[in-house]
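Thread: Modeling a multi-component assembly for a lab meeting

Hi all, long-time lurker, first post. My supervisor asked me to bring a structural picture of a complex we are working on to next week's group meeting, and I have zero experience with this. I have the sequence lines for every component (1048 residues in total). Could someone generate the structure of the whole assembly? Inputs are pasted exactly as I received them:
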Amino acid sequence: MADGAVPLIHLEGVTKVFVTDEVETHALAGIHVDINKGEYVSISGPSGCGKSTLLAILGLLDTPTDGTYILNGKPVSGLKMQERARIRNREIGFIFQAFNLIGDLTVYENVELPLTYRGTPGSERKKLVHEALEKVGMSHRVKHYPSQLSGGQQQRVAVARALVGSPSVLLADEPTGNLDSANGEAVMDLMRELHRNGATIVMVTHDPRYARFADRNIHLFDGRVVEEKMEVV
Amino acid sequence: MLRDLRFAVRSLLRSPGFTAVAIATLALGIGANTTIFSLINGVLLRPLPYHDPDKLVALDLMSGRSQFPWSYPMFEDVRRDQRSFESVAGFSTWSGNLTGVENPLRLQVELVSASYFPMLGIEPALGRVFRPEEDREPNGHPLALVSYRLWREQYARDPGIVGRTIHLNQLPYTVVGVMPPGFRGQTDDIDIWIPITMAPSFYGIPRRLTNAWTFWFRVYARLKPGVSLPQASFQMAPLAKAIDVAHPHPNEMKPWQVRANSLTEAKTDPALRKSLMIMFAAVGFVLLIACVNMANLLMSRSVSRQKEVAVRLAVGASRGALIRQFLTESVLLGLAGGVAGFFVAAYGIDLATALRPEASGNFWAFYSRSVKAESVQLDGYVLAFNIALSILAGVLFGLLPALQASKLDLNQALKNVTGGWSAKWSSLRRPNSRSVLITGEMALALVLLAGAGLMIESFARLLKTRIGATTDHVLTASVSLPLRQYSPEAAVRFQQQLLGRLEAAPGVQHVSVSNCLPARGDEVTMMRTGEGKEWAAVGARSVSPDYFALFHIPLLRGRLFGGHDQAGAPKALLLTETAARHLFPGEDPIGKHVELQIWDTGEQVAEVIGIVGDVRYDGIERPPGDDVYVSYWQYPYGADVAVRTAGDPMSLAPYVRSAIHALDKDLPVYGVETMDRKLVDSTSRLRFSAVLLGVFAALALLLAAIGLYGVVAYSVAARTREIGIRLALGAKREDVFKLVVGDGLSLCLAGLVIGVPSAVAATRVLSSFLYNTKPGDPIAFAAVSVLLVLVALMAAYIPARRAMQVDPMVALRWE
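Re: Modeling a multi-component assembly
Sure thing. I ran the full set together rather than chain by chain. Output:
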């Protein structure tokens, strides 16, 4: 973190407790993390360590039980559902392990979706969607449906969808988990390229090979940050 | 097969909720069909309950395209000269007063030829029927047969009834037999039969058997062996010519023809047949909608059975075996629905017979088979139909799900990978089996709604129709004075005394006696406006002076009847506005004289004294005709007493009865009801179609709404992940709500696109049943389209609310 710079993401004492049948599960127990603009951070740890919960909180899909989350200088942990949806749409781009493309929509429509919810005018949407698909090398497949694409191609489309609205941060949850190694490498190369061009990326992965692509690795265990180290490229 | 059946039973019992919903859905669809089929069976299909009914024919007397009843001299000519028939019989129906019993009764009487019973093959339960020699001499044989019902209810099944004397219209008749149970003559309501040659004394009209121009009865005949219907018709031509020669008509008239029709055909009311066929199509639509719902239900269910199907396929089941297994279940469901539907039909029949339409008002319709509880029953034919339909429905709704289920991707299913059936069927965005089915369902529902909407609009317009008379607070009762006992003078005295007594009752404002009531008049007479002018048929209304004040019928010109328009005074006549316009175009009729041929009184001259407002007498549906009023005191025909009261008219009913019985204890009083109630009866035909179609359309709408709800709800459940993704990408809750409602609405709109043109075409068949409404009426179509859209919105609302609650976390959890 550069001295004096305001972090893009600031988590302070973030906890998440799930209560089921009088049993309390502490998924996150006091997380303190700062992520700067333009940083590439990987989050790793064993199953059940709280990676996905942390990602859900970072992505405003879930709210912390306690603690502070400041995104782009604005506290977001106590926001109403409507406002969270708006910030999610403008500030965050998701890349999921299972691509999560909508089967009924074409490649173009899938990528267009975040802009539709933002209310971007049609002509601008068209331009942005084509630019995003150009970036991931999928502009020749705009009319295809997801089922007509390979896994690697689907994930590239998912990356384009995450990029299209120029979000502040890309959150990637095991982006290579459903891909073979060749396609996995290609997606990681793509993300590295995006990072070089200035994108802020937070990636959950349990694969040490891909964790090394990041500038910094945060290791979780039992809901706590147990190690934080800078990668030397 | 038995194993399939056993498994099907077990499988259905394992899902009691699904099974209950399925049986209820099918019970409604199959029950509605069974109801209408039982009406069709009872009214159209069941063989006539006579010996060898295919040999029976109705002989119709025709002049041009007009059908006439027979006159007795013409009937005798044909009976004597014909060679095609084993026997020919005439009959006529009228009501008569039975006295000498505890309470005098107004009963339906059938006057018949002696050949009538042998020709139909009807044997008496007791005694004998009339002998041939007993229908030759006018008024020669005052004999009677009584119905089984009358024998049971009035004579306690006394075998000594044979030989006893009963009094009909104050005339003594000797009972010679009792007819078998269930036989009630040609109008299904007869209690007494007398020889047709008793007509002069029974009707009190001496020339009944001798006047060739008095048309009053129908004729049936039985074909000789080896003679076909076309042959018989052909042989009628010379007989018709002989009638023309023997009875030359005084006026210009087309030559007579005698047409032989199959009796089964002749006893079918074409309007009722068409109405029942439309109902049959309507319930067919309801069943189709129910089948679509069932197919969708089964497809949803088969998703949860993927694993079971996969295992069956893995262990070597053939596709055919799987289809058979699925079809066994659906046919079993169909049969269970059929059993439940049979009970639904029992209620449906009660409703239909309670709503039974009145005969359509013409002479012939009274002899047609109608929707009556006695003839409409759940018999063996109905049961067979019910079972066949249940099996057919089972195959219909089971086939598509069975075919789809048997096409499962075995590899994917065994790995439990989503993307098999559920992914394929959850989407409503692209056409698939479910969306196509539900669109069709919406289109069918719209066709039914449009039909019902038009009928209901017609019915509403009919109810709003101004008939030209005010009918609230009016009590009506009928008292028929036997002509033998009451001369015209005695009848006038009786009615004047009766009106005097009724006027004195507290709360009574006006009283009248007449041969008609608004919307309930069918007497027609011939009238011409002067020597050498053409005779015209006019509605003849004989009324006492207060009739106009009672029904608030306005006097437009001239004067009304007064106390001086009595028997012996110059005959006075009032014209309705329409009659004045048609019969005296461009002239002032007041003071003019007309000639009347009224009720066997011969030609008489009457002076037009005034013009009154139009009243619809020929039913509410028909516009006012050419009607004329004569003074009841000059023409004492008719038996309808009307009383306008300040309070509840029915509270006066006991007083009216006692006032009549105080004058003559032997007179039966009948038809005691409010005028408003009588008007309701006169709308019964349209009501029958409107209510039944309305019920079926409501059923269709309900089923379509359930179907749409099921499909949208299933789609939401199967698209939870997609909704989560959308939310993760920034969709707001209302975006998700709009998405789901939009999906439901798009199916509904697709249904409208197909349904509206289909409904425009389909509702054309209703045109003859509509009143002041056109088949493609834009108001009715707009109303039912909006209704369908609203119902679709409601059906999609609950799943849409559920979709709004989806947690966007599912986008991550489904990894």
